[in-house]
Amino acid sequence: MAGGIDPPSPMPTLPIALLIGALTFNMALCFINTNVMGINDTMVMGCEVVLVATALYLGLGRNVAPYLLLAIFLSYAAMLMAMRPLIDPKAVRDFLIPVAFYLLGKSCNDPRVADRAALLCGIIVVVVGVFEFVALDVYVTYFNVIKYYVARGSVAPSDISSQTGTLFTSGLRPDARTLLPFLGPHRASSVFLEPVSTGNFGAILYIWALNRPAMAKRWLTMAAGLAAIVLSDSRFGANVCIVATVAYFAAPITPRFVWLVAPFTLLIGFAVYGFVSAEVKWENNFGGRMLWTARLITSLSPAAVFGLSPDKPFLSDSGYAYSLNQIGLVGVIGFWSLFIFAPERSPRAWRFKVCVATYICLLMIVSDSVYSIKTAALLWFMTGTSDGAASVEPTGAAREVAAPAYSAAATG
Length: 412
Description:
Layout: H1 13-35, H2 41-60, H3 64-83, H4 89-108, H5 111-134, H6 136-142, H7 145-151, H8 195-210, H9 218-231, H10 235-250, H11 256-276, H12 286-299, H13 302-305, H14 319-341, H15 347-366, H16 373-388, H17 397-401
Helix pairs in contact: 1-2, 1-5, 1-7, 1-16, 2-4, 3-4, 4-16, 5-6, 5-8, 5-9, 5-16, 8-9, 8-10, 8-15, 8-16, 10-15, 11-12, 11-14, 14-15, 15-16
């Protein structure tokens, strides 16, 4: 516009819609399974394939480096499958999610897109969570959660508990609620259908808002994250917020090498703990989870440590054991190194990366949900936009009119 300021370009809608789809598709399938027709695990995998493929299409662009990265990963996965031998598409899917959504975020190249996505997703999660809390009978009428998990093969019919009814197994706290005990034993699952992911999502929103002082509606986004943690009574989410805040302030004075070795230091510590500990009593707290992950890690055979075992035991309670069994120690080192050494363009992006590293290192002690697209899509999109953002962001009035920079592919 001659003699004036060009009007701001609209935010890219397709990446945001894709993130909302990754957040809510399980809830949509649960509604269909409860009220329309039965679903199966193939339908769930099909939805995930569409989401990941679309993210890759929008995020790859013309740079040769992402294509080379994908070729190396797929070649490595094919080699593992040939050596096991075992065709395991889930292992490929697990590690394609962070790659696809990181590239999508980096192609958008503007953290304000992640700001918008975080706020919208946070509002959706809190609204549905509050609805579930105040009208549980109506919620379970339309969303028979445990029936959905049985249909997709994630829960055996014999594992259904009469105490939780149609909710997921962890939908009720068997002991006293930790956060706001007067709310009772119910833990809101919201769009995630199980409360663990709701708490993890709340921690992700908190970490993003913590690292985005220039973010519009920053405090509303942070409040949405904290509300998700409280609604789901997530002790883990609350603790992550505390530790991530410490990591945020420590990031400028900690070298990159510290974060490179952090998960492997924990892995070695758990292995030693598992081999030398005589403790056999397990309790449902963080100490008990540490004991259990130590037991799972030490239960792996040497072949499993390098991703060569054809056996697929239940390892979902330990992200460390699960990762080793899926892609092996070499693959884990490679992926973590790529994450830590992926170039970022500002000190603030490094701070965010440190907070994400803290979240992942802690989460893998208690769960393999770091690979769940429900929460991982937004997390890795945030990481990509953070790494790709310019070192100096617009301020003041310039922030109101500056057009977001993103690749042509991101507009759809």
